[in-house]
Amino acid sequence: MKNKTYYRRVRIRILEKKYKLAPGQIEKMLEVQRGLCGICNQQMTPYCIDHDHLTEKVRGLLCGKCNRVLAGYVSIEVLENCIQYLRKVCEPCNKS
User: Fold this and answer.
1) Confidence of residue 83 (pLDDT cuts 50, 70, 90)
2) How far apart are CA 94 and CA 45, in angstroms?
3) Residue 74 in this model has a pLDDT that exceeds 90
4) Structural domain for 27, as ranges
């Protein structure tokens, strides 16, 4: 049976090819982000490649939960509207 390191390297190679990244680029992103999600700053196990679905440009690494939340939104404007909405509807909840 192959070890985890082997499968990790294979997964990295597959993702680098899929997203047209240079060899070692995912490892470098993991190092720069210290293995933490770019949004929630929690440990990523496993990590997801965050990319622009229109341009396919890779933006960084996210945990699965944050990647699923972000996946449905294609513009900053829509995300800002989401934040404004949550602040408005949750404001009474935040006052204690």
Assistant:
1) confident
2) 31
3) no
4) 4-71
Question: Within a domain: residue 30?
Answer: yes
- Total domains in the chain come to 1
Residue corresponding to tokens 């989401």: 82
64 and 38 in contact (C-beta within 8 Å)? Answer: no
Instruction: Using DSSP, state whether 36 is helix, strand or coil.
Output: strand
Q: Are 56 and 41 contacting, i.e. CB atoms less than 8 angstroms apart?
A: no
Distances (CA, A) of 78 to 18, 25, 43, 89: 28, 30, 27, 17
Segments of the chain assigned E as strands: 47-51, 58-63
For the whole model, what pTM was predicted?
0.77
Structure tokens at 30: 């993991």
> Is position 88 within any domain?
no
DSSP H or E stretch at residue 10: helix 4-18
